[in-house]
Amino acid sequence: MRATEKELLCIMNSRATMGRHKAALLLPVLLAVAMLPLGSAVFTEEEILSFTMTDASLEGHSRSLLQATTTATTGSSSTSAASALPQLPSTPEEHCPLARGTWCGPYYQQTPTPRPPPKRGNKSCPNNCSGVGQCHYDHGICYCPIGFGGPDCSTPRKRPCWRMGPDKRDEGWHNHTDWSHSRCAGICDDSNSMCYCPPETKYGRKEAPPGSPPGTPPVQVGRPMYWCQPSTDKDGTPVKWGAVKYEDLFGPGGWCNADVPKFLCPCRIDGRIGALCNIPVEQFCPNQCSGRGECDQGFCRCHAGWYGSDCSRRRAGASMEETLPDYLGPKPWLAAAVTPPVAAEDPPRTAPQRKRPYVYVYDVKPEYSSDILQYRIERVNCKYRQWELGNNSVWITYNAYAVEPLLQELFLTSEHRTFDPEEADYFFVPIMWACLFDVYGWNPIPRWPADVHGPRPYGASVMQLRTAQWLNATFPWFSRRGGRDHIWLTATDEGACSVFKDVWPGIFLTHWGRTDFPHLPNSQYHADYYAAPIKHVEHDGEWLDQTSRAHPCFDPKKDLVIPAFKRPEHYKRSPYMGAPQYERSIFLFFRGDLRIAPGQDPECKYSRCIRQTLYNMSREGNWREKYNVWFGDTRNVPGDYSELLAKSVFCLVLPGDGWSPRLEDAVLHGCIPVIIMDDVQVVFESILDVTAFSIRIAQKDLAKVVDIVQAVPEGQIRIMQNNLAKVWYRFRYLGLKMADADAAAVVSEHRATNGGLLRPNPGAQYAASRVDDAFSTLMQWLYARIPDIQGKL
Ligand SMILES: *[C@@H]1O[C@H](CO)[C@@H](O)[C@H](O)[C@H]1NC(C)=O
Ligand SMILES: *[C@@H]1O[C@H](CO)[C@@H](O)[C@H](O)[C@H]1NC(C)=O
Ligand SMILES: *[C@@H]1O[C@H](CO)[C@@H](O)[C@H](O)[C@H]1NC(C)=O
Ligand SMILES: *[C@@H]1O[C@H](CO)[C@@H](O)[C@H](O)[C@H]1NC(C)=O
Ligand SMILES: *[C@@H]1O[C@H](CO)[C@@H](O)[C@H](O)[C@H]1NC(C)=O
Ligand SMILES: *[C@@H]1O[C@H](CO)[C@@H](O)[C@H](O)[C@H]1NC(C)=O
To answer: Are residues 393 and 457 in the same domain?
Structure first.
């Protein structure tokens, strides 16, 4: 076997697109590929660079952005010119088709109020956070980046490489034979466990001279050696934990020494690209520090006078007018990804435009937030967008948990955000729950509790409990209502099944609406098996008694199943986006992961064995030929996913390891969902009349699926299709720069094929509008719940 450079890159990139980030399972394969030398070919830097830019979707996106800019200026006039296009709602009632209960409407009956000037703090921090941390001027608390800790960020806080000695080098290549991701044959950056070529090599890491102030960047960053471990030492003695020829790393033509090396180690850290990993690009931070700070892998170093985890706050006494190095100056590229935070405007907008709920977004201690981002050693993890060559802001091809970074940015930039916790109706706690799942296996740090490598839901749940305890000990607002007004997001496969009962009174936003109790995990993946028993002094007794045995996964009275996030291009062929309407020529459709490869899932636990069973039935019973039922994975059912959905009458909604975003896919394309997952509520099922636009089949009736769906009368199909057009827009997110630009680009493409006008398809008036989108729906629901939470309005 021999991989071409391109295949190699594809494999590397595909880790990003792998469902639920279980790539660790594939490690031997990846390692085997990573070991392969790239042949004897020598590449120029341009050639090498082009390998990283082959993803067509990235190029497509740059195009879209251009078009989006054009649309933005001409948008409204051509929309109103399309007279047949229905109007957006104007009365509260018009906002509420198919709403269940009384939550919908009151939000729109509010009288908007003026926004007070944003609160600004000036409480100073101990020792000015030693010049490395970020002072939070409301509380006088230091927030420290990785490497530093303690009340003033002066205590070293290390994340050593595996088997690292005090000189930041390996303790001996032969003394220990065990492999780990973070075993380092070069020099270790022990703040985040990243390995670099050693300083004695030409492209080695050269630290700042001794005596430099803490946090001084290295003189030379050095080429990373991550995924690059040697198969022998320099004398040819085999090294048990490595796979790359010694020469290829340390020889004169090797990665650490040659200007154009014959062998390339992968470049996968955030902030540097190119095959030589030497081209600096912007790194990922929440809302890019609002354009008011420098982003360090997820930690914002705010410009002087600015503060907060997103640098949106202005210190009291610092003038708003003074010349600031904001992004429009030295970093114009940031404008593509920074959504200006409404709550930060000072002076505030004058027109009364403020509505409740008011939501306070905590600046969470780095241990539970920015550390996790800084500990990423894979640039694609934990985000939905990234910076590419030329600091172009592009989409990540696929991150199942993309709603986590997205929702954090939506809360940070929302007009509902308040900087004043005293007036807040709700508190959003932006911990990196799903992101932790991505970084959990790489290194003994971070772990919760520190000495246990338990299943990932356990680690995340303990981290969440620590966060609640820290909030409770540091601020008065957690205990005020027993945590009931605190909002948590648990975006991973089995959502909130495993959270601690001390945190459970809060509001859980999740994709997994499982309601039965008691419950056991669905996952066939051992690292996610939340029923694994663990006893630890830090949680008195068996953790299950305090978590999954104490509550259901989802409580429709206080929690909400929210949509997964997909960029608008994902549903670009939908009639709701103004695409030409296809004939719905496929009767029943499903395409997705089946886990049927030998040995992949011997107990058939994935998807509760529903996908696998249906797949067998569909093949054995010739469903495609007999009933026009398309069921399979990408090999059996090739083609453009969006187009296939837009051409289908019914679409199956089946679980994955836990949730799977199939309801969203169906609804966004006007395909009637056929839900098969007992005791699991789908997105917004507790607040919308889902039965008006979907059908549900019990798991015991799998064999009768085709009969049941065929029995749906034609008239009812029409009614459900009409209903889908009345709710579809609640199932997607707009409101951030990139998402809005993406939607505008899709719409403008469709306009261009229709004489400049948007096709008046039912529902298409919402195509690029944020009105009543998923986040807005969440706000409306939260507003209606205020009396319940607080006992008053
Ligand atoms: C801090 O703010 C308070 C109230 O806003 C003000 O009275 C005080 O003078 C300020 N202190 C400093 C050092 O700016
Ligand atoms: C405090 O530290 C920041 C860097 O974090 C620096 O910009 C600022 O000048 C320092 N202020 C003082 C008073 O030393
Ligand atoms: C590793 O082996 C070397 C000799 O090869 C020895 O000098 C060194 O002390 C050993 N280190 C440890 C931690 O055992
Ligand atoms: C991209 O951003 C990085 C980080 O701010 C900067 O170092 C680099 O010079 C920028 N590149 C370009 C082409 O502007
Ligand atoms: C919060 O603090 C209060 C008072 O100190 C305590 O009674 C309560 O158990 C704490 N809650 C949590 C979740 O730690
Ligand atoms: C599906 O069919 C294959 C091949 O006959 C069989 O090995 C497998 O167990 C079947 N799976 C289910 C869930 O019926």
So the answer is: yes
